[in-house]
Amino acid sequence: MEWGMENIRYVFSSMERSLPLYLESIGYSAWERIFQRPEGYPYYHWLHTLDGEGRFELHGESVMLSKGKGVLLTPFTPHSYYPTSERWSTIYITFGGAAATAIMKALEMDRSTFYEESDDQQFGILFNDLLERIASSDSHSNMEASSELYNFLMQLRKFGMLNNQPSLSQYYRRLQPIVSWMEQHMADNIGLQEISDYAGIGINGLHELFQHAFDMSPYSYLIQLRLREAKRIILQHPQRALREVAEQTGFNDVSHFVATFRKKEGITPGKYRELHQTADHAEQQPLELDEHYK
User: Fold this and answer.
1) What range(s) does the HTH araC/xylS-type domain occupy (predicted)?
2) Distance (Å, rounded) from C-alpha 198 to C-alpha 147?
3) What domains lie within the chain, and their CATH numbers?
4) Pairing relation of β-strands 79-83 and 8-11?
5) I want to staple 216 with a disulfide (CB 3.0 to 4.6 A). Which of 45, 172, 220, 268 is the partner?
6) The pTM is what?
7) Contact of 103 with 149, CB cutoff 8 Å
């Protein structure tokens, strides 16, 4: 679909408004106009610049939305915007739903804020694909639009740069070699200092990177890697003693392993093994475990 001189707008029927997440409208404004909304808009509203530029006023802040920049608004957020170039072309989505607030909170997108597309993803291309699928459908009330909207929000969360900060995908790319090293050395006696030394980043900087990308500290991520590997070993080698599993996954001793496993998984590793054994394994001789570790 080529962006021309004519506006494009699709409005969805009330049938879809019983869905947990639904599109209210989607469109392209070839010539964006002046809007003043002192009461805000009753739905979530995403607006993105394709060409030209305009000024957007939000919470007393005035921001220039040039090409590749946009804004996400929560419902009923007062705002205004107007073109500052001869032609300001934008694309937009408005949406709601009974689960919309919960979904936006889960994606950490539940506040009005400015976005910028990263080199990894151009939102105009992504939006164009979405709009073409809607345009080619038999009806503008197709329920598939709900899943398309969710996918779009996931892409915005992953690739959108929030308040001039790197996007999640950029954080992931920067952390990939560090995570790979952690996976290779999780059985060794490593901690924050060793990870920091390998990465060449101070502990505070490392902590900030992991918090942005994974919403957890680097040490918590290491524990998660170790527990994931421990579960793999337990399931693939059900006769292996827990002491060996603990040693192979970097825990100081079996007591620490059992306590950590119970805290994170809600059950002991012995019980985890029990629950996942097949009928064939159950017929084999009982595991030799101290009662303390069951």
Assistant:
1) 176-275
2) 41
3) 8-162 (2.60.120.280), 170-293 (1.10.10.60)
4) unpaired
5) 220
6) 0.64
7) no
